[in-house]
Amino acid sequence: MSHKVAPSVLSADFANLQRDVEMINNSAADWFHVDIMDGHFVPNISFGFPVVKAIKKWATKPLDVHLMITDPDRYLKDFKDAGADHITVHLEACVHLHRTIQAIKALGCLAGVAINPHTPVALLADIVADIDLVIIMSVNPGFGGQAFIEHTYKKVAELKALADEYNPDMIIEIDGGVTLDNAAKLVAAGATSLIAGNFVFNAEDQVGTIAALKKVTG
Ligand SMILES: O=C(CO)[C@H](O)[C@H](O)COP(=O)(O)O
Ligand SMILES: [Fe+2]
Questions:
Q1: Which residues are substrate-binding (predicted)?
Q2: Where are the domains positioned within the chain?
Q3: What atom in ligand 1 is closest to the CA of residue 178?
C-alpha cells in the first residue's frame, strides 16, 4: 500500500486559508497535518480551536493534529470537538502516556505519539502495541522550514523493526524538512506517511509537488 502524504497547514497562507485548504482537497494529499504549538512545550505559538474548526469546515480529508503542547490531556476533547481525526501527543509532554492514549481512543480518534530528535525509539517499546501512529520528528519541533536531520533514517528503521514485531499496521510518519531529496529514502526505511510544510507551500506548483511526494517509491 502506498504511503500517505500530509501537507502541513502551518506553512499555508493564513490570509488565504480557505484557498489553501481547497488546494489540498484537490490534490493527491491524504490528510491535513495541523500543528498546535503552545509557546511552552515549543518556543512558538501557532493557532488554536477557531482555526482548526475553520480548516475542518472546508477540508474534505481527515485532520492529523500534532499537539506540541504541555499537558495535552486538558485539551483532547476540545481538539476532537474542533475536528481532529488523529490526535498525536509528544512522549516528552506526557507523564501518563498510556492513559493519554486511551483517552484519545475513547474519543474515537486515531492515537499517535511523537518523539523529538533526541528521544530514542526504544522508549516507544512498551506503547507501540497500543497506538495507531508515531511521528518521528526530523527537526526540533516549533517551526516550519528547518533542515532535515539525517539521523532520522536510523530511527525510522528502528521503529519499523518494533512495528513489525508488535503492531504491523502502525503508521510511521515523518515530520520536518521532508523534500523530494529525502522522501524516497524515508519510504525505503519504513516511513508510511510523509508530512511536508515548506516544501509544498513554497513550491510554484503545490498540487504537483504533493503528487510528486505521493509518487516516490522506496
Ligand atoms: O511539526 C512541525 C514543526 O514543529 C511541522 O509539521 C513541520 O515542521 C513541517 O514543516 P516543514 O515541512 O516546513 O519542516
Ligand atoms: Fe507537525
A1: 8, 66, 142-145, 175-177
A2: 4-215
A3: 12
